[in-house]
Every structure is written in C-alpha cells, then in structure tokens.
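Lecture 7, part B: from sequences to assemblies.

Below are the input chains for today's worked example.
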Amino acid sequence: MNKKIKPKLILKELKQLPSDGEFLKSLREGLVNYIKINPAAAYEAESFERAPFKMKIAPIALIGIIAVLSGAGTVAASQNSLPGEALYNIKLLSEKARVAVALNPKTKADLQLTLVQKRINEAKEFLEKAKMEQTAREQQESDLNVAINNFNENVTGVYGWADNLKKGGNFEDAIQVNSDLKTAASVYQQILEQNLDGDIYEKTSEINESMATVDEWKNKTKNEIEDIDQKESSGAKSAGFENSAQNKINAASKKVETIEKIIQKKKNNLDSQARQLSQQKLKDTKQILENAQSDYNSGDFENAFEKAQSVVKSLSGAKALLEIFPEINSDSLKNFWDEDKNGNESKKPELKKQESKKTKDPEKKEETKPQENNREEGD
Amino acid sequence: MSDVKRFRNNDLERQFLDAYDQYAEAILRHAYLRVDSRAIAQDLTSETFVKTWQFVAGGGEVKNFKSFLYRVCNNLIIDYYRSKAKTNVSLEDVAEQSEPVQEAPYKDIDMGIAFESIKKHLDSLPHDYKQILIHRYIDELDIVEIKEITGKSMTNIYTIIHRGLKMLRKKAENEQKN
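Predicted structure of the full complex, as structure tokens:
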C-alpha cells in the first residue's frame, strides 16, 4: 500500500535548502559599501556647495567624506557630471559601488559595459563642451587624460569578467562581451581622433599613451575572440563535433533572430540604404547558416560547426556595432568596417568570401544607424 | 549634518542591515525556488536589496521590511520572466538564451523521492499557485503578509492554497502509482 503523501509537510522540508553563506557575506559587504556611497537622501547634509573642491583628494578618504557630507541627492546630481567637474569622482565611486554589489561574472560584465558606454557618451560631451570653452587648456588636457584612463579602467574591468566567463566555459557570452569591447574601443578612438585636431588640445605624451592603450584593447579583444574560437573548436573536436555543431547552429539561429529583431526595432532610424544593406548582410548570414545545417544533415559535423561558429562571431560583432555606436555617419561607418574587415583575417573561408563580395560593392556594407544612447544605464 | 540627522541616518542604515541579516537567506531561497538557477537567484537577491535601499534612501517609508523585500523580489522575478519572454531582445536577453542551465541547489540534497516529486510538481503549477505555496509553507508568511505582497484577496489566497495542495497531492499520487 502506498504511503499517503502530505505535500504541506514536504513543502516545508524545502526550507532545509543549504544556505549560501559565502554569497550572503559578500553581498552584505557590497551593500555596506554601496550604502556608504549612496547614503539616505532624506537626511542630506545642509549643503554640498561648500565642499566641491575637496573632491580631488585621495579616493580612499573620499568614501568617508562622501558618506558624511553627501546624500543620495548628490549622487543623483553627479550622474551628469563630466571629467574635471566637482561631482565627477562621486559618480565614479557610485558606479564602482554598484558593480561591487553584483556578484556574478555576467552581471558584472554587463554593468561595466554600461559604464564603458557611459564613458563614450561622456567623452563626446566633454570634447564638444571643451571646444566651446577655449580656456584653461592645460586643465582640460589633464581632465581628458583622466577621462581616457577611466575608459581604459572600465574596459579592463569588463575584460577581466569576460575572461572569467571564458574560463567558466560560457564562450558565447565571452565572445559577445569581447566584441562589445572591441567596438567600444573603436568608437572611443574615433571620437578622440575626430576631436583632437590640435586647435583645442595638444596631444600630450600622457594623452598619447592613454590613447595607445585604447588602441591596444582593439587588438587584445580581437585576439581574445580568436582564442575563444579556438578553445571552442578544440573542445568540439574532442567531443566529435556532432553535439557541438547542433548547439552552435541553434545558437547562431537565435543570434540571427536577435539581430533581425534589433533591426526591426530600429527600422525608423535607418535610411533606405542602411535598411537594404542590413537586409543583405542578414541574407548572406542566413545562407551560411543554411549551408551549415546542410553540412550537419549530410554528416559533415566539423564544417557545420565551423560555419555556425563564424556566424555567431560575425553577428556578435554586428550586434555590438548596433548597440554601441552612438551615432553613425557615413565616414565613421566606413572607417569602422574597413578597420574591422582588415582586422578579421582569420575568418572562415566562406565568410571571407561573402565579405569580399560586399567590399567590392559599397552598397553591401552592412549597417544601420542605431539610436544614440540605446543601452540602458545599469543603475 | 546635525547630530539628529546623523542619528536618523545611521538608524536607517542599521534597520536596513538588520533586515538584511534577518531576511537575506529567506529571500535567496525564495528566489532559488522561483527561478531554479543559482546565479539568477543571487542576482535577484542583490537587486532586491539594492532597490530596497534606493527606495528608503530616497525617503520612502517601509513599515514592514519582510513584506517589502518579498514584494520587490517578486516584481524582479516577474520582470525576469517577462524579459525572457519578450520579443524585443536586449544584450542581456541574448546572454540568457545561451546561458547553460545551472543545477538548482535542491538537487544537491538527497531528501527522498517524495521531496523530488513535490518540487517537480510545484514547478509545474501555475505561476501564482507556486508563488503562494512557497510563501505560505517555505517562507512561512501569514495570509495577511501574502495579501500585502501579492495584492490578492484573502479568499483568493485561501482558495489557491487549497487547490494548489490538492493538485500537488494528486500529481504526486499519480506518479507514485506509475
């Protein structure tokens, strides 16, 4: 005879799930720091105006000072500040505290990617504003250098978490994050190059050095994408390719759907030429994917895997472009794609062929005109 | 800052951290059971406390931290499932699609066949049934608290609990027969 099941009692047993003490301890520490940087607005200090010029002192002391002097209102006010302004350091500290509260690599990478995007928008605004105010050039150069270093610091953070994703075997996220970083570095570099024309700024040795670091990120992330590709391939090879090929084809199909949806969502921001180009690029990609599926069906798992892998990589780059490019004019688009094309020597033959066709025909240069600031702020 | 303001500020921080110490484990467990992924449950828990702090730090009044935290957590869980289902994908959604399924923590414990089957059937219940049963028997909330969190009437909650338990028992008994 079956024993009578008492769901109420058994449900209560679920209370005995093991506690995740390490996580709870880390989260508490993160929250304590977050509270220090974002104290209660309702009990805000009388006035923050008296203290703005103290903000350039050592960062360690800053946390304590902010906790005493400022409130959440100050943190909120700091969010639009630019390099060199009194509240800018509060903005950076608030961002760091927010990232510290998140504990998972993917969340940290995403949050820091939003900061990279912030640095891009900030650089544009800062440089445009600086053109209007042609005074205190030395100070502006120094502030600009701080801004570039902050960008590099945020990129370093994301890169570290992307590496963590790679080590955890989450190759697709790692590729997407690296593609985002590579695009972000290109965009940032273009913004700097377009604005550093010598009339306003001298490229000081510090600025040159910081800009060289931005440039290095492009190569570093490109190499990282190749490395992840290779790791995936060797993993797939040792497993006989069959399962990996099907998984990769599925992932590539999802990626195609994603890009289609993004393009659909932004169709009003695309002129007819850009729409046509993006449709063409998608059509080419789908063709490669179909070929991959045919290879799979005929038992050629290795080729199927490689084709699907190239689609995922290519679409990760396209997605990064759509998400990160703050605004696209024909020159910046051309520069970006030429650079990307020249930097992508190791793509699979079929993809290279598709791309070389496009190069011959300027109409087939994919892309689009994404909205400005289309990535949401993380916090 | 005056001493009175500083005292009130410190008091608010203390209350918040006390609430963390008291409820964080329960909120994390609740999130685990609702989303079945350790990483996502951890994210939801940290977001729950960040958002709660943002609310109180912005001058919002919280009469009962326990109910408030569960309500924030529930809203985040709903957002999570909506973002999974929505057609307008973002960067994060794509990541979710390709995220490998992670083992839920309860799978690490040997709590017997009845336990496993109840958990499996709990997951198969309608969303609000699952939520309310977890609130009632695992979070050990009373009906008034569940009413505050879910916004459902007490009659409705009692009905869901009654039907939910019946459905669970039936599913488990059917499985036992097979």
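Note for the exam: Residues 129 and 148 of chain B are 16 Å apart (CA to CA). Keep this in mind when comparing with the next example.
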